[in-house]
């Protein structure tokens, strides 16, 4: 997709502060530029967990989690890099070549990115393997497992109207 046209989807910053979850809308540029998404998440101050969930064009999702040493990320479908700049940027950051066949679907990155929040890598793999689900549905499953489903639903109800 061209970097100039808007990318359908949404970006949500998920913050856990003092045992409570909060979801904030991310700027739409976060769906086009990985660096913009990372920068926006780094500006979020919290003593707890901070990570981003990006659902891009009903095709794939990205989970980003900045840390002092860099950024952990998970791209749900490596083949998306053939059509979407942000997915290509994710593979570049991971130092992984894009697949040659877009019919192959597999994730790239840290499957254990949310393990400390209650979602171990094998369970996240099961969610990603649900290819009949849209990315927002997969992210809802992630939110359910980690404990912030009500906050994400409430937030999505306001931004997706």
TrEMBL record:
NCBIfam families: tRNA_deam_assoc (TIGR03941). The lineage of its organism: Bacteria, Bacillati, Actinomycetota, Actinomycetes, Pseudonocardiales. It comes from the Bacteria. InterPro entries: tRNA_Adeno_NH3ase_assoc_put. This is Putative tRNA adenosine deaminase-associated protein.
């Amino acid at each position: 997709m061209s970097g100039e046209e808007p990318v359908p989807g949404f970006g949500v910053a998920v913050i856990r502060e003092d045992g409570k979850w909060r979801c904030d809308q991310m700027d739409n540029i976060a769906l086009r530029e990985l660096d913009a998404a990372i920068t926006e998440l780094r500006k979020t101050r919290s003593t707890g967990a901070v990570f981003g969930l990006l659902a891009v064009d009903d095709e794939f999702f990205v989970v980003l989690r900045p840390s002092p040493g860099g950024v952990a990320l998970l791209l749900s479908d490596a083949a998306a890099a053939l059509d979407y700049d942000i997915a290509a940027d994710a593979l570049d950051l991971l130092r992984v070549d894009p697949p040659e066949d877009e019919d192959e679907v597999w994730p790239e990155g840290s499957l254990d990115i949310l393990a400390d929040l209650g979602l171990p890598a094998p369970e996240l793999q099961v969610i990603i393997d649900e290819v009949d689900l849209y990315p927002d549905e997969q992210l809802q499953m992630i939110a359910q497992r980690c404990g912030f489903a009500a906050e994400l639903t409430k937030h999505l109800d306001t931004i997706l109207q």
